[in-house]
Write a structure and sequence with these properties.
Elements (H helix, E strand, L loop, with lengths): L1 H18 L2 H14 L30 H6 L2 E8 L4 H9 L7 E10 L4 H13 L27 H14 L8 E4 L3 H10 L19 E4 L18 H7 L19 H11 L12 H14 L8 E6 L1 H10 L8 H6 L8 E10 L2
Parallel strand pairs: 2-5, 3-4, 3-5
Antiparallel strand pairs: 1-6, 2-6
Length: 357
């Protein structure tokens, strides 16, 4: 078994090298070197089912979260939009009645493109026939626990997915005023490729002045916290150098001299106290929904911009669409918008915020 596992690791390493950008190949290479001779494909624990073979993401179990939605002081009604409806919706928002107690925004939600962790998950599953148990705490059985996979970047495929979205849909979000993005590298890369036309160098007016599109990183839209190291942020000083146009001042800790991911550390310290072995726990869908609600109500709700792009992650988006947003009962929006986002997929919606007395 060990010989077969080592051979598998080497084969996967060779395959990954052909499709991962040179700059990030060393991460995957180090991972597979670590795997050689150590992987055991025999595993009898219960495995979390994934919605597809290449997605290490939390999946919905058809739980009803209406009690959560109804308990919150501000309700958020969502209406999914086809790209062709965006222009008319913008016009409606421009004529919005400011005297009402509701606020409506047009939001383009996007999941990041394929990351090296997605590809690793896919190749592991293809070669072994066994999906990775994402709750497994043994790194030999769950490679997403190895430090080499921290803050997984996009693969070449992931970059191409984002380019396709830009080519197909850029005309529909030409009026974006604000881009809010997760501070994880794969989300930042996705936003920069998909919304390339809104980068500072590409959005100058005829007089040479920069347009007013702001780029802001926000901890509230990060991927599931705890355990899986692909979701831990790399040293901030590296990210600041690569994405100088993004404002990182809202991060729990934004001192570029420090390498610590404070937001991640706080979650791990808090959840590890509940386990005898000190293992941090994966954030639940309900807990992620609280983060999503706080982001939408405490941040997005108060922003002056009417049209906003939010670039994040599959599990976070799933928590938001299932346990935060409300749709018209019986509408197709529930089934269409409440499913897991595909890699680099964009979905647009109006969000109407109403305070409940």
């Amino acid at each position: 078994t060990r010989r077969r596992s080592a051979a598998m690791a080497l084969a996967l390493s060779s395959s990954l090298q052909r499709s991962v950008p040179v700059a990030s190949y060393h991460v995957a290479s180090a991972f597979f070197n670590h795997l050689s001779g150590r992987i055991s494909v025999r595993h009898n624990h219960h495995r979390l089912k994934s919605s597809s073979r290449d997605d290490p993401s939390l999946t919905s179990e058809a739980t009803c979260y209406n009690h959560l939605k109804q308990s919150r002081p501000i309700r958020i009604k969502a209406k999914a939009l086809h790209p062709s409806e965006v222009a008319a919706t913008k016009a409606d928002l421009a004529n919005d009645d400011k005297s009402t107690s509701t606020i409506t925004k047009l939001v383009h939600f996007q999941r990041h493109g394929q990351g090296t962790h997605n590809q690793l998950y896919q190749q592991w599953t293809d070669r072994t026939g066994i999906p990775i148990d994402l709750s497994e705490t043994n790194p030999e059985l769950n490679p997403l626990l190895l430090p080499d996979i921290i803050d997984a970047p996009l693969t070449d495929k992931g970059r191409n997915q984002c380019k396709e979205q830009r080519i197909d849909k850029s005309k529909y979000f030409a009026g974006v005023e604000l881009i809010v993005v997760s501070p994880l590298v794969r989300a930042l890369e996705t936003a920069c490729i998909t919304f390339e036309d809104h980068l500072p160098s590409a959005s100058k007016r005829d007089d040479g002045e920069e347009e007013g599109v702001r780029w802001i990183a926000h901890e509230g839209i990060r991927e599931e916290l705890g355990l899986l190291l692909c979701n831990q942020r790399r040293p901030l000083k590296e990210t600041l150098l690569e994405f100088p146009h993004v404002d990182f001042s809202l991060l729990a800790q934004h001192d570029e001299r420090s390498d610590e991911d404070v937001y991640w550390k706080q979650h791990c310290e808090r959840t590890s106290m509940n386990h005898a072995d000190g293992t941090p726990q994966r954030e639940s869908l309900e807990d992620m929904s609280h983060r999503a609600y706080d982001f939408l109500v405490e941040y997005l709700y108060h922003r002056p911009e009417k049209e906003i792009a939010v670039v994040g992650h599959s599990a976070w988006l799933l928590a938001m669409t299932n346990a935060v947003l409300e749709f018209d009962e019986g509408s197709e929006d529930v089934e269409e918008f409440g499913t897991m986002f595909g890699q680099a997929e964009l979905r647009s919606a109006t969000l109407t915020f109403t305070e409940i007395n």
